[in-house]
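Lab meeting prep.
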Amino acid sequence: MGFELQWLLIGLPLAFALGWVASRFDLRQLKRERQDAPRAYFKGLNLLLNEQQDKAIDAFIEAVQNDPDTTELHFALGNLFRRRGEFERAVRVHQHLLGRSDLRIGDRDRAQQALAQDYMKAGLFDRAEAAWRELLGTPFEGDAQLALLSLYERSRDWAQAVAMARQLEAAGGGSFAARMAHCECELCEEADARGDEAAGDAALARARAAAPGATRPLLLTGQRQLRRGDAAGALQSWDALRMSHPLAFLLVVGDYLQAARLCGRTAQAQATLSLAFEQTPAVELLQALQELEGEPAAGQLPRLLTQLREHPSLSAAQMLLALPPEAWTAPAWQAMREALARSAGPLQRYRCAACGFEAQRYFWQCPGCLSWDSYPPQRIDAL
């Protein structure tokens, strides 16, 4: 009995000492592992800053293996994969994060957002839509709605795009009137293409209600009126367009002439286009006036010179060349020379044979790829 008690008194302190040593060893091992993880993380960050992405990815993978519970390392690794175009690996990283039961709610939403971005970059729009919809009702809801709006526009799902734009506007995300008007105009054109005029009328009415001052609904209204034979109505719509958006009127100058001829208002159209040219000199208006007036004549020379002085272009120079030789004057020659000089200037450039970098001046060392003697001495002036 005394012998067993003696061994018990010896064994208890010995067991305590062994346990203490083991715990100290575990603490040192844990501390060493925690030190290794930040070291690998900082190593990867340093490589990333030095634009050595391959080595940075290896360093982050090593850090993740040493400390698989560190979410920030997973996010950094997934973002690197996405930036490199390795979308499948990025998806796996973020899906691994979402599969963890101990992930905090904030980190889970963040991982869901990263996964949605992976799908978007990879072109998997159906999966991206589902991933973004998972973020509705979370702190990332605004970003998700904006992404869904862009996704619907890209996939030409205009009805869904309009609905999402309305939600964003209702949530105080700013004004989306212009985007809604464009989407409704797209719906109108689709309805017209399939012969559903009633649906087209409704969509166009919604577009004009969403953005009363927008350009496209007014332009589209005139085009639809012209197709229906209401040339006078089309002229009225386009006159309103000309007053509110003079530059946008240039898009329908040809249609404006056609409508004027159909309803016998060519003289009025000529006066209107002449006034428009005085306010906004443009080649489109010059061409329309030339078509109304017939063959090129000396009377067009003042307008051509105005156009060349204010907006030198090859198109205006070509119209000037179409005039008969007797119409040419010294100002016409000067305007022609200046227009050609200004138009040809940007085309006269040197191009690096190594990388294709173009510049107005000659470089012995290419600013793009840093190659020496890569610029041929002869300039190029082709488009």
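Slide two material, second protein:
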Amino acid sequence: MEVTRDVDKLANHATTPLKASLVGMALCILSMISIQVGAALSGPVMEKLGSFGATWLRLLFATLFLVPFVRPRIRDYDVRHWQSAGALGCAMAIMTLCFFASIQYISLSLAVAIDFLGPLTVAALYGRGVWRILCPLIAAAGVLCLSWDGRSWTGNTAGAFLALGAAVGWAGYIILMKRVGRRFAGLEGLALSLLFATLVATPLGVIEALQHVTPMLALQVALLAILVPLMPYSLEYLALKRMQTFSFGLLMSLEPAVGAAIGLLVLGQGLAQVQMLGIAMVVGASAIGSRLQVGK
């Protein structure tokens, strides 16, 4: 299929590990920008549809956009293909549903801090040498600084456990996305995984969404679905085809820094000194850790 061949050609275009990793990092940064811009614009829709309803509709629209475009060759898949795509779809659903539900109970800053335990754990597990521990620890401290709202972290146990569920989903997403990327051609694995994610989220989101959705809201969610999750998942899928799991997991800790920059540019939200320190720590740990792994 032409689309599949083109995507595979793009994913394998880099001729050296260094070039491949640098392109992968660029794709990750573009993904983070898309996520944070989408999150900054999502407030009104989330208030009207609820967290589960808005999340399910986003997954549904992303699936409707991607599956007809990619046209997965379903008859060619064996049991391992279906298992990999199904597991990734479950991780996607858990990651998104739990995170957006958690911020109904705890502050966004605390939810982000807990959520980033996922990629930082992956970085620690898949790294090599002493830096596999030091870089995630430095990045984790930076995320905590970025997540501080200037007053306190308040919330309840339910919200913390939901955020922890999102962290587990995110860790699984990173590991399984790498596996699906190797097993499927082009974006076929991503399209199939999105379909599974939508099915998993349906029991929780369909009733909430249908109770409040209007044609205008549906159009807004469809547009937001391009920013989150369609573009980020596609970019990260391509990035993991050319990056080590450690580098990807550590690089994801840059997302709070990207979010802070988007908040400043889009929403006019200023940064405290401790948050600027957090950005420096996260950027430094990600740069050092990723560069060391590329060099090996």
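Talking points for slide two:
The chain has one domain: 16-294.
The chain has a mean pLDDT of 83.
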